[in-house]
Amino acid sequence: MKKAFVLGVTALFLCGIIFSTSVFGADIELAKKSTIEKIMKRGELRVGFESGYVPFEMTNKKGEFIGFDMDYARRLAKAMGVKFVPVNTEWDGIIPALMTDKFDIIMGGMTITQERNLKINFADPYIVVGQTILLNKKHEDTVKDYRDLNDPKYIVTSRLGTTGEQAVKKYIPKATYKSFQTEADAGLEVINGKADALVYDLPFCGFLYGSQGKGKTIFLSDPFTFEPLAWAINKGDPDFLNFLNNFLRQSRGDGFYERLFKKWIIGTDWKAEVE
What we know:
By secondary structure, this protein is α/β, with parallel strands linked by helices. The chain folds into 3 domains: 1-32; 35-128 and 227-274, Periplasmic binding protein-like II (D-Maltodextrin-Binding Protein, domain 2); 131-220, 3-Layer(aba) Sandwich (D-Maltodextrin-Binding Protein, domain 2). It is built from 11 helices and 13 strands. Strands 1, 4, 5, 6, 7 and 13 form a 6-stranded mixed beta sheet that branches. A hairpin with a 5-residue loop joins strand 2 (58-59) and strand 3 (65-66). Helix 7 (183-191) crosses helix 8 (202-213). The protein is globular and about 80 Å long.
């Protein structure tokens, strides 16, 4: 009986070793497949975005990519000891491009949505924005918030395939909606009096109002949606996700995030580089 017990314990111990070895081996294989390993081996961090989302990613007068996300991307590449490689990509194809290895990460002001999260993973949010309204000045006395636009007589614009478009369809479905390929074109439609209101992210509406909309538009700056922005990576990569979240925490702790916020969100000096 005692011998059988000892044999049983020994067998369980050996099974435990085998199982632990198997799990450990699987962890090593998973780590080898991580995007981090590919980045380090390549010596490059390929960052996907679409230039034009103010003030997160823009092209200055010298043809250089600048903005909140671009500074963050350069900092991330430096932290990894690799070269920063920007990959400017059309927005409607940016997730498929990530999934087919055209770049390593999307750092392009992407809002976390459940639909997107089914296809890709998000790091922790780095900033929260929301949808605001840039209103044609002729409606200054009649439209006070988004609810007043819920009428077919109002033409409301936004950019195709964005959370601005989703907000229009969800919160003001009765409005006459007109989509555009770029947020700039959607905004100019309002400034030129061809549409009544633009629904888009707070940073862009604020920028457009300040640069071209004064005297022609009214900026309803209180966001009516909650939209966290985050960096996106492919699924099945816990090591890269862990690295990014720790990098974010470090950047907040050492003051880097605060400096970026003051420079790009609060500050206006950068406007001279793009206007």
